[in-house]
Design brief:
Blueprint lengths: L38 H6 L7 H14 L2 H6 L16 E13 L6 E12 L2 E14 L2 E9 L2
Length: 149
């Protein structure tokens, strides 16, 4: 996911964690595991994403828990912004992975098309995106995206 979530005129809260996401919480990425056993391991740096889909899911979860360091660490250096700003009025609520092409442990590139649902000041909306991932220094990183809607 590439969306920088601060809108002009709204203050950023970089680094602020979303209250309520604990190690025992269901993982925000939508897989049937706890946060600690799923994306939390990737965020903590104790595991690496084996596929581009797992990296995409972990990046979505990083938006949910507002882990800017992880987002920047998993962004290709050629396209990485200097910072990630989080809009305090947005809450990411659900992820739908729609399609994955390549991106296995045996590939060097891959794409993930998804719809990420959120609320903005309580109003529901969604982001439909096709993200491109590449291997950089042996690890999957987010490179770029095309917004579908």
């Amino acid at each position: 996911m590439s969306r920088r979530t601060t809108r002009p005129g709204r203050p950023a809260t970089a680094g602020a964690r979303t209250p309520g996401t604990t190690a025992e919480s269901p993982c925000p990425c939508g897989l049937p595991a706890t946060y600690a056993d799923c994306c939390g391991r990737l965020h903590a740096g104790t595991a690496a994403a084996p596929t581009c889909e797992s990296l995409m899911r972990s990046r979505y979860a990083a938006f949910v828990v507002r882990d800017a360091a992880y987002l920047l660490r998993t962004w290709h250096p050629d396209t990485r912004p200097p910072a990630v700003d989080f809009d305090p009025h947005m809450r990411w609520v659900r992820l739908e992975v729609l399609e994955t092409t390549e991106g296995s442990p045996f590939h060097t590139t891959g794409t993930v098309t998804f719809r990420a649902h959120y609320t903005d000041d309580g109003r529901p909306d969604s982001l439909h995106e096709k993200s491109r991932f590449v291997r950089h220094d042996g690890a999957w990183v987010y490179e770029a995206a095309v917004f579908v809607d």
